[in-house]
UniProtKB/TrEMBL annotation:
Cofactor annotation: Zn(2+)
Listed CDD domains: M14_AGBL2-3_like (cd06907)
Keyword Hydrolase: yes
Major localisation: cytoplasm
Record-annotated Peptidase M14 domain positions: 375-645
Pfam families: Pepdidase_M14_N (PF18027), Peptidase_M14 (PF00246)
GO cellular component entries: centriole; cytosol
Organism: Zalophus californianus
Protein name in the entry: Cytosolic carboxypeptidase 2
Catalytic residues in the record: 609 (proton donor/acceptor)
InterPro entries in alphabetical order: Cytosolic_carboxypeptidase, Pepdidase_M14_N, Peptidase_M14
Length: 695
């Protein structure tokens, strides 16, 4: 009846390049493993698989596989019992990944089953079944690997490691700019240094159990984290007069591990380390309830690890009152008195800890308040922003949103391509590229606010923004480490490693976010010049905003890598400090984004460091940065790009001349410090920049 198909069925195999591609493609992205063929293969399983994906990591290479147990075994129950034994053997062979021998010509199977099940198409783990159990000889559509979420559909819920308990509450904080500058705290010299009491003499009022630390490792993830009933970790109040604070941090970016009540209004707090490590306590974000207005509370974080901190020079913690937000439209603000950062008096003989203590009076009774190291910006915040861009009929024309890759936990790492459509192919090919990224260190939310400011401007209808889109192709990765952001890590991914030391990695499965970012830039360099690369970070020890770059070894471009930072300092003189910039390439930084991209050929390759504190410059001197200050830096990056690429090279040459003068002064200063006279007859420009900066 079907001679062509009958001829094909006699072949041992049916070579198909697309099938081979999809086989390896889906093998990596987790829908099946060749050894077990564990792809859901029915309409029912397809629904479950599509709407409730979950990933496991197998072995040390991080292969993902579906967790629905042996769905092909279940699928066989849907087939009529009249199927011949040959068909069942074929199903068994497919489920074990065994090549099926060609169908015997004297098979007793009826033609319909032979046609469907004896076909080489059965080797595909992507076959669909309709509602009647009939095989549809077509490939299942892959998951949206290179597409964003549907503009009309729901956001993709964050995926958590299965060890993490997550409360089912949607938190939202309003954006707000204080009407008055928020000045640094001025120490009085009378600040108290509380001795650490601990739970031996205090009362534990909140504690996370089974936090994965060093020695454990990430295995699997799911939406909502740990299965089962979410326990109440805060203490149970004994009545309306009970003034115990109720703590919580099991939400996006939260990371409080334990709270101990050591006095009526005094609490010692222990931060959770980065998951699967025993290090990196700096970022904090937690909630308190059951507040009392007229009391002075003291909070002391007891397990910080950095010996130096901006809290020693005036930085204040951030506080958010839910009642103030709902009634007065007031958002995050700097609060705290008697602020001290000091060495922990408890010595366990293993690790040296530092403490941060502060006092505060809450603005309302029975309020819900939050404390944070810096303005939080979560993975859900990013997705809401990107959804608004995808839904904007104008912005979506020149901003294309794709999935760069999936993180270890299966969260989407987004890639934005922003450029105006070119009139001709030649014009499109002539455009240079600019690459920007943020949040490789999840606790440095400063980077997200600068990125938001950049995106707000570059996606606007400003003439300057339109001009930038005309002359550049912007590649933007707004959140490189979504897993770390979600779980509240300060520095690491779920691999327990600092991703900004692994840009040279070949371990795609262990560091997918970094591997795919580097690969994207490598391919971009093959098709066009990348004028600038900049990775947005936060800094915990210095005030202001500054850049780390890489000294050029090419005398033709001597000092050129310093022009952009100098221009930026002129465009944002009250925020950006050129004198804090550094261009030395240290050996310990070889795996960072800026150094790897520089070695790949991007001359202007930078790490932008934004303080957690504020400014010591101009009219903003001694004041904390707000989110608006950081967003304005994103605009200044755009403004500086226009100056940097101005066809009139006057500004560029003026900056270059100024840089040479500054360098000459630095050389004189170094020689004076060494007690030597400079040889004025020699060429001072022949002196190594690295030698100058390392002296």
């Amino acid at each position: 009846m079907f001679p062509a198909l009958e001829t094909e069925l006699k072949q041992e195999t049916l070579p198909d390049p697309y099938e081979d591609f999809m086989y390896h493609h889906l093998q990596y992205y987790g829908y099946f493993k060749a050894q077990r063929g564990s792809l859901p293969n029915s309409a029912t399983h397809q629904h479950v698989w599509k709407n409730n994906p979950r990933y496991l990591l197998s072995g040390s290479f991080g292969e993902r596989e579906d967790v629905i147990p042996d769905p092909l075994q279940k699928e066989k129950l849907l087939w009529p019992t009249c199927l011949c034994s040959t068909v069942h053997r074929q199903l068994e062979a497919v489920s074990r990944g065994i090549r099926r021998p060609s169908r015997p010509e004297n098979s007793n199977c009826f033609p319909g089953d032979s046609l469907m099940l004896g076909s080489p198409l059965l080797k595909s783990r992507q076959l669909l079944h309709d509602e009647f159990g009939e095989v549809n000889p077509c490939l299942r559509e892959p998951r949206d690997l290179f597409a964003a979420f549907s503009s009309s559909g729901p956001l993709q819920a964050p995926r958590w490691p299965i060890e993490c308990e997550v409360i089912k509450e949607n938190l939202h904080h309003i954006e707000w700019v204080p009407p008055q500058p928020e000045y640094f705290y001025q120490p009085t010299g009378n600040e108290k240094l509380p001795e650490i009491v601990g739970e031996e003499k205090g009362t534990v009022v909140y504690q996370l159990d089974s936090v994965p630390t060093e020695g454990s490792y990430f295995t699997s993830s799911r939406v909502g984290g740990k299965r089962g009933i979410i326990r109440e970790l805060a203490v149970t109040l004994q009545g309306p007069e009970d003034n115990t604070l109720l703590f919580e941090s099991r939400f996006e970016s939260g990371n409080l591990q334990k709270a101990v009540r050591v006095d009526t209004y005094e609490y010692e707090l222990t931060l959770r380390t980065d998951l699967y490590t025993n290090k990196h306590t700096q970022w904090f974000y937690f909630r308190v309830q059951n507040t009392r207005k007229d009391a002075t509370y003291r909070f002391t974080i007891v397990n910080l690890l950095k010996p130096k901190s901006l809290y020693t020079i005036g930085m204040k913690p951030l506080m958010y009152s839910q009642l103030d937000a709902s009634t007065h439209n007031i958002g995050w603000r700097r609060e705290g008195n008697e602020i001290r950062y000091y060495k922990n008096n408890r010595d366990d003989g293993q690790q040296l800890f530092y403490c941060l203590t502060w006092t505060i009076q809450f603005p309302h009774d029975q309020d819900t308040c939050f404390f944070a190291h810096f303005y939080p910006y979560t993975y859900t915040d990013l997705q809401c922003y990107l959804l608004s861009v995808a839904n904007n009929p104008v912005q979506s024309q020149f901003c294309k949103l794709r999935t760069l890759c999936r993180s270890l936990a299966g969260n989407t790492v987004y890639l934005l391509t922003i450029t105006n459509p070119a009139r001709t192919p030649q014009e499109a090919a002539a455009k240079k590229a600019v690459v920007l990224s943020a949040r490789v260190h999840p606790g440095e939310s400063n980077g997200s606010w600068i990125m938001k400011g950049f995106l707000d401007f570059i996606l606007s209808n400003s003439p300057d923004a339109q001009l930038l889109r005309d002359i550049f192709v912007f590649k933007v990765v707004p959140m490189l480490n979504p897993d770390g952001v979600i779980v509240g890590n300060y520095r690491c991914s779920l691999a327990g490693r600092d991703l900004n030391r692994h840009y040279k990695t070949i371990l795609k499965e262990s560091f997918p976010c970094i591997w795919y970012t580097r690969n994207m830039i490598k391919r971009l360099l093959e098709e066009r010049e990348v004028l600038l690369y900049c990775d947005f970070h936060g800094h915990s020890r210095k005030n202001n905003i500054f850049l780390y770059g890489c000294n050029s070894n090419d005398r033709k471009y001597w000092l050129h890598e310093r022009v952009f930072p100098l221009m930026l300092s002129k465009n944002a003189p009250d925020k950006f400090s050129f004198h804090s910039c550094n261009f030395k390439v240290q050996k310990c930084k070889e795996g960072t984004g800026r150094v790897v991209m520089w070695r790949m050929g991007i001359l202007n390759s930078y790490t932008m460091e934004s303080t957690f504190g504020g400014s010591t410059l101009g009219h903003k001197r001694d004041t904390h940065f707000t989110t608006e200050d950081l967003k304005s830096l994103g605009y200044h990056v755009c403004d500086t790009l226009l100056d940097f690429c101005d066809p009139d090279r006057t500004k560029f040459m003026q900056c270059l001349a100024e840089l040479k003068e500054l360098l000459q002064q630095e050389i004189h200063k170094k020689f004076n410090e060494l007690g030597q006279d400079m040889d004025l007859e020699g060429s001072w420009s022949d002196i190594s920049l690295s030698d100058i900066e390392s002296r």
